[in-house]
Amino acid sequence: MALPKNVLIREVGPRDGLQNESVWLDTMEKRTWIHLLEEAHLPYIEVTSFVHPKWVPALKDAKELAQSLNKKEDITYAALIPNEKGLAHFFEANLELGAMFISASETHNKKNMNRSIQETLPVIKQMTADLKAEGRQTRAYISTVFGCPYERQVPMDQVLRLTEQLLSFGIDEISLGDTIGEAHPLQVERRLDLLLERFPADKIALHFHDTKGMGLANIYTALKAGITMFDASSGGLGGCPYAPGSSGNVATEDVVHMLHKLGIETNVDLPRLIKAAEWIEAKVDRTLPSHCLRAFQSHTT
Amino acid sequence: MALPKNVLIREVGPRDGLQNESVWLDTMEKRTWIHLLEEAHLPYIEVTSFVHPKWVPALKDAKELAQSLNKKEDITYAALIPNEKGLAHFFEANLELGAMFISASETHNKKNMNRSIQETLPVIKQMTADLKAEGRQTRAYISTVFGCPYERQVPMDQVLRLTEQLLSFGIDEISLGDTIGEAHPLQVERRLDLLLERFPADKIALHFHDTKGMGLANIYTALKAGITMFDASSGGLGGCPYAPGSSGNVATEDVVHMLHKLGIETNVDLPRLIKAAEWIEAKVDRTLPSHCLRAFQSHTT
Question: How wide is the angle at C-alpha A37 spanned by C-alphas A10 and A6, nearest 5°?
Fold first, then answer.
């Protein structure tokens, strides 16, 4: 299959990245980073999470941050919402897109959500209805699509069933997550074959980690299967706190750099993206895993 | 095209990795590292280089090191040879395979070899004849196959012409190098299409850098085109001293891990390979870019 002409990048750094860092960024600092990401023309920024601050203290200023943004018209500002309580805060914060989450494996869902998959689905269904009633866009994350840190293998039937149910709720896009960073390109090829037989490619985003170095190999494989939406994190910040050893969202700079090399448009400004990654790297004060951040820095020093 | 069943890994860390490090490993330390690589059952180890010590002081003990090895029967011990003077030392060192090198771009060849491509070819031809007369195996590196730090674009015609000439000398395998780490999978696909129309896949190895995170994406693409030999460096050590910003050979652990995930046999023992990478990382005393080194360490700490 030919490569797509355009790809949409979903920047998840300020939410998925920061929720896994021990560093505290105050609201003004978060705004600065988000501003740098806006300047890079990212079409979607997941700015925070309305998870209880007890679980993710790094994002405890979610509402205040969201309300303080000088939002640009052509950017979708999103936040994670775990439940109806989070939804109330989300509406007060006045963001455009609500992202919900569920796991494809029972154990991971229980550890992450403190309830079963069957108990999670009606919550998502109701939240989706509430979000749509208020004219908001919706997204659902399915975790552990390519493997689970507790159950290891995750049956593809379960992924297909969940995708079907979530789409039947009217959710705009589903992001399939390689939570433990173990997806390999042949598996991506096979799982997407089954998925895209049943569902339209423009409803599916992929969320890869670069834990074992296969992030871009998986994205290239997904592009060839027809996928046109990818999650990525500025600097490669983040992972999953409930999946041991799963550090490393694929870095937005690395994804955008490869896409441009392939002749695919993203509308993202790579030099400005590097600047945003440099800023957050200095702030968290550790070397981030982004390849292009290193490569482009080493050219100038 | 279906993936191959078996792949041969060419371990180049002790030569290509060390030649780019400022750290000095004495002969005994190099032997220790090579021994750890032998224990991982790598089928090929490029142990040193007979380049003049003035250019690569890190490998100035080339002959002494080679003579001190307790060689295993099922491993090919190789070394880089730049010219006839190096060849004399190589024969004294009694190794199995001599690797020669040339660039696909004139400027890079001049900076690297201090002579033109046309002047380099007869030297390689003569060395190949001498090596074969002594019953040795032969390999030739072509650098800058996917781009040059000085000339940027490198015409594929030049790569095809050089490959043809080198094979006509009777050289056993040609390693095509992504010297600046800018090859992308679509380019790999296109260049291999042209190459494998003319030459048998089992004569071609690929040598990728992971500078921009595309190392494994390029390898996966090459596997699908039918390539079954890949160069890699333990821990991801090394780069090219004449190509600014080109740090990062693809890490042997990352390559082997992906191949095994894909169901491809390498005969390499991954846990022992991680041990070898841990050892060299401690020795050079900086964080190496290998993904699997990090991932497997973080599982145990």
Answer: 40
Residue pair A133/A178 in contact (Cβ under 8 Å)? The answer is: no
Tokens of B231: 């160069």
A209 - beta bridge partners? A249
pLDDT in tens, B233-272: 999 998 655 555 446 899 999 999 999 999 999 999 999 9
The set of long-range contacts for B163-170, using a CB threshold of 8 Å and a minimum separation of 24, is: B163/B195, B163/B198, B163/B199, B163/B204, B164/B198, B164/B199, B165/B121, B166/B102, B166/B124, B166/B140, B166/B142, B167/B199, B167/B203, B169/B124, B169/B125, B169/B128, B169/B129, B170/B128, B170/B129, B170/B132, B170/B138
Set of chain A residues whose Cβ sits within 8 Å of the Cβ of B244: 298-299
- CA A209/CA A190 separation, integer angstroms: 18
Domain map (residue ranges) of chain B: 8-300
Selected residue of B291, B292, B297, B301 to mutate for chain A interface (largest A Cβ count, 10 A): B291
Q: A241-263: per-residue pLDDT in tens? A: 555 544 689 999 999 999 999 99
Q: Which of B214, B291, B294 sits opposite A258 (nearest CB)?
A: B214
| Angstroms from A90 CA to nearest CA on chain B | 35
**A256 to chain B: closest CA residue:** B212
CATH 3.40.50.300 is held by the domain B8-300: no
- The interface predicted TM-score of the complex, written ipTM, equals 0.94
Instruction: Name the token pair of A61.
Output: 């200023």
CB atoms under 10 Å from CB of B72, counted, come to 14
